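Crash report, auto-generated. Payload:
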Amino acid sequence: MSQNSKVGNDSGEEIILSVSGLTKHFPGAKTSFFGKHEIVQAVDGVSFDVAAGESLGLVGESGCGKSTTGRLITRLLEPTAGTVVFDGQDISKLNNSELRPIRSDLQMIFQDPYASLNPRHTVGTIVSTPFKINKVVPEGGVKKRVQEILEIVGLNPEHYNRYPHEFSGGQRQRIGIARALALRPKLIVADEPVSALDVSIQAQIINLMKDLQKDFGLTFIFIAHDLAVVRHFAQRVAVMYLGNIVEIADRDTLYSSPKHPYTKALLSAVPEADPDAVGARERIRLTGDVPNPINPPSGCRFRTRCWKAQDICASSAPALLQIGQTQVACHFPE
Amino acid sequence: MIGAPIQGRSPARMAWDRIKKDRTAKISAITVAFIFLLALASPIFTWILHTTPDQFHPETLDPSFGTNPVGKLGGISAQHWFGVEPRTGRDVFLRFAYGARTSLSIALSATALATLIGVLVGLVSGFFGKTVDLVLTRTMEIILAFPSILFALAVTPVLENLLESWGVPTGNATRIPVMIVVLSMFGWPYIARIVRGQVISLREKEFVEAARSIGASRTHLVFKEILPNLWAPILVTVALNIPTMITSEAALTFLGAGVIDPTSDWGAMLLASVPFYSVDPMYTFIPGFGLFILVLAFNLLGDSVRDALDPRSSR
Ligand SMILES: Nc1ncnc2c1ncn2[C@@H]1O[C@H](COP(=O)(O)OP(=O)(O)O)[C@@H](O)[C@H]1O
Ligand code: SF4
Ligand SMILES: [Mg+2]
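Recovered output after restart:
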C-alpha cells in the first residue's frame, strides 16, 4: 500500500529492517469439492522500516494479521509476495539452509508461555539449544553462559535443571526471553509477550524487555492487541487492520493526535494515564468484529465499522500517505 | 558460585510416583513379573525335576489305554506339578514354563519391531505431511482393513520358503522369525496411527517454531523436540499392544502357522490339548488360564500406565 516506506524515520539512523509490500495469503477451505481453495488474505501489502535500536509497536485487534507479519519477518513463514530486507539482505525468498546463518540474529518471543516451551526439556536444555544448534561454544562453556543469561532475565540460575511446568506464567515468559536472547540477536519480534499474563506481571516483563533493549542495543518489534501495552515501550507505533497498516507515527504523535478513525477507536479504549487529555478524547466504541480476511470489504477495509465512511471508501482503497508527522491510510483523516 | 543443583521433578518421574500408588497396577505388574520369572527360571525347574520339557514319560500313562495320564487332574503329582501330556507323558509344568518363554519372546520381539516401524512411519507421516503422508496413511488403512490372521496364515509359507531359499534351516529357525515379521507387519499401523496424530498436533506448537527460528534441522525438530513428547502415548500404545500380540501369537500357533513341536508354546499346548479336552480338561485349562491371566494383567497394566501418564483421562 505504501509508496513511501521511509517516512516516520527521518533521522539518519541505520535501517535494520525494511519490509515492503509484504503479503501472505493462506489457503483456506475449499469452496466446493472440485473448487479452488478460498484465500485467507492475512497480510496484504504491508510496508514499514525499523531503525537499529528502535522499538516499533505493531497494534491491532485479534485477527488483523500481526502474528503472521511477525512470522514473515522471522521467516517462520514464507511470504506470498513482497520483500523483507534485514541487515541489507533480502531474506524473503531464502530457503531453510540459506536462512540458517541469519536466524540467530532474528529471534521471536512467543505469545503463549505454555506452548512455547517444550514440556519435556529442562530450562537449561531450552536456553542452551540455540548454542547447540548453531554449534556456538561461548567462553566458559554453554552451561555457564546459560546461567548468566538466566540471571540477566531475572531467573535463579540454580533452576537450570527444572522443567517448565514448575514455573509461573511470568517466569516462563522470562525463559522464552532468555532463549531469544541467547545468541545476542539484532532484532526481536515479541508477539504479544504479555497478553497471557496477569496485569501485575505484565509491567515486570515489559520493564525487563526495556532494560534488555537498552543494555544490549536490541531492536524490537512489539506486537500487542491494544495501544495501552505498547505505550511505555514503543518509540513508534504501527496500527494494523485486516492485513493492512492504517497508520504509523512516533508514539507521542500517535497518542496525542491519531489520524485514522481505527486508531482513534483503539485509543479511546485505553485507560487514560494523562488526565489533561480526557476532555479532548471522545469515547468511541467499535461495534462488530474484524471482518473475515477471506472476503475483506472493498475499498477501505475499515469502512464496515467506520462512522465516517462515504461512498468513496467503498470504491477506492486509501493509500498510506504522509500527513504531518504521520503516515495514514484514510480518505478523511483527522 | 552455585550451590547443589536443584533437580526438577520430570513429568516421567511424576507418572512413576502416581503408578506406585495404584493397586491394580501393582497387582498386574507383580503377575506379569511372576510369569516373566517363570519363563526365565525354566531351566532351573528342569534341574529340580530331573527331566526336560521334551522327555517322554510313558510310565505316567495308563497302559490299558496307552494315552491318558494316570491319576487325577491329568496326572498331577509331586513329580509332575501340572500333570503330564496325554499320549507322550511330557511334563506339563515344564512345557508351560518353557512355553511362556517362547510366547513372550515372540510377542515382545514382534511388539518391539512393530513399535520401531510404527514410530518411524508415524513421525515421518505426521511431520512431512503432503504426498508422503497420503501414501503412508493409505498403506496403514489397507493393512488395518485386512483380516490379519487369515492373511498371516497365507503369507507365512511364502516368507518361510523365502528364508529357506536363503539357506536358513527349516523348522523353528525359519518359523519364529517369520512369525515375528508377520505379527509386526500387522501391528505397526496401530502405533503409527497414534504417533502420526500426535505429531500433527505437536508440529504446529510454538516450541517447535521456536526451535525452527534458531535454525534447527528437521532431524532436530522430529527427534529432539517432538519425539520426547511422545513417550507417553507410545508407552501406552505399546503396553496395550503386548496383550494383542500375545493373543495373536497363540492364535497363529493354534491355527498351525506357529511354533513347531517339540518346542513348547502356549498356543501350541492349546492346540495339542484339543483332542483330549473331554478326558483331560486340565491340559486345556492350564495354557488357557496362563494366556488369560497374562493378557488380563498386561491390559490392566497398560490402563494404569495410561492413567498415570495422563491424570486427566478417566477410565
Ligand atoms: N496457517 C494459517 N492458515 C490459514 N489461516 C491463517 C493461518 N494463520 C493465520 N491465519 C488467519 O490469518 C488471519 C490473521 O491471523 P494472525 O496473524 O494470527 O492475526 P493476529 O496475530 O493479529 O491475531 C486470521 O484470520 C487467521 O485466522
Ligand atoms: S477511508 Fe473511509 S472508511 Fe476508511 S477509515 Fe477513512 S473514512 Fe473510514
Ligand atoms: Mg496473534
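Post-recovery validation: Chain A touches chain B at residues 71, 74, 76, 99-101, 103-104, 106-108, 110-112, 115-122, 129-130, 133-134, 147, 157-163, 165-166, 176, 179, 183 (CB under 8 Å).
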